[in-house]
Design brief:
single chain, 273 residues, mainly alpha, two-stranded antiparallel ribbon, 10 helices, 2% strand
Length: 273
């Protein structure tokens, strides 16, 4: 007779089968477990980033948060590639996003510069964290809503509001600039209090943001080599000039947002004609 486990069974399909079936269902394929392990590693990196920030090791804190962002982008793709997607994994990924891109960046930015503004700085950090949670909740509801009308194919290429990983990375702009020599004083702290609130608004507003899903359909043969060359150059710059590259990338992303909205409006105009 097998000894009963003190832990509840993991049901990758989130299906409520009868008791007899559950008793016979002893093993589960590893393809359902591997993506969840990657997600948990992302949470560990994010929380470790906070620890580094408390120790004033901000460079390592930012790197750990960026690693968490990479792992967040990888886990879902790996799950789809090995057919290991599950409802449990989706919920875990959403909770990881709330921690890594809602709580962690707000704490990093507060410890680094916003604490100079005392309660005002803490309020800005709180607004960002709450906005990130609201954005994730709205995103999850939109995924589960089966009553909505089918959207045009081109609309699937846009997020509504800045995604939480993007918000977490662009929120750290003052940290990147600080490493490049920007003075960390009361003036810059006040400026980035407003910047933090603006990022929070961008996450929960109806701003259409291109998500890059159309790239999955393929890349034209004549641009494959230039794209590969661009990726290599970017990573070389990231290794050699990390903070400058991150700062320029953040500013470029902010400039890209209105261009993305313009492209969306153009699609809407064309579809109505």
């Amino acid at each position: 007779m097998k000894t009963p486990s003190p832990f509840p069974p993991f049901d990758a399909d989130d299906m409520h089968d009868n008791d007899e079936h559950e008793k016979n269902r002893t093993f589960i394929p590893l393809r359902f477990v591997i993506p969840n392990i990657i997600t948990i590693m992302a949470i560990v990196c994010g929380l470790s980033s906070v620890c580094m920030a408390f120790e004033k090791r901000f460079e390592l804190a930012v790197i750990l948060l960026l690693v968490a962002a990479v792992l967040d982008g990888v886990d879902g793709r790996i799950a789809r590639a090995i057919k290991g997607s599950s409802r449990f994994g989706e919920q875990l990924d959403s909770l990881a996003d709330a921690i890594n891109f809602g709580v962690v960046p707000a704490l990093l930015i507060y410890i680094y510069i916003l604490e100079r503004m005392d309660k005002l700085g803490w309020l800005a950090a709180l607004i960002y964290s709450v906005a990130c949670c609201l954005r994730l909740a709205r995103f999850n509801v939109m995924l589960d809503d089966t009553n909505t009308k089918p959207k045009p194919k081109w609309k699937k290429n846009y997020f509504i509001g800045v995604p939480s990983p993007g918000g977490g990375c662009i929120l750290l702009l003052p940290v990147y600039l600080g490493f490049l020599g920007m003075p960390v004083d009361d003036t810059t702290a006040m400026i980035f209090c407003f910047y933090t609130v603006i990022v929070a608004i961008l996450m929960i507003c109806n701003l259409p943001v291109w998500n890059g899903k159309s790239i999955r359909s393929g890349v034209r043969r004549d641009v494959v080599i230039p794209v590969q060359l661009f990726v290599v150059i970017y990573f070389v710059l990231l290794v050699g000039y990390m903070w400058l590259t991150l700062a320029v990338s953040t500013i470029a992303y902010l400039v890209f947002l209105p261009l993305s909205a313009y492209a969306y409006r153009r699609h809407v105009r064309i579809s109505k004609e």
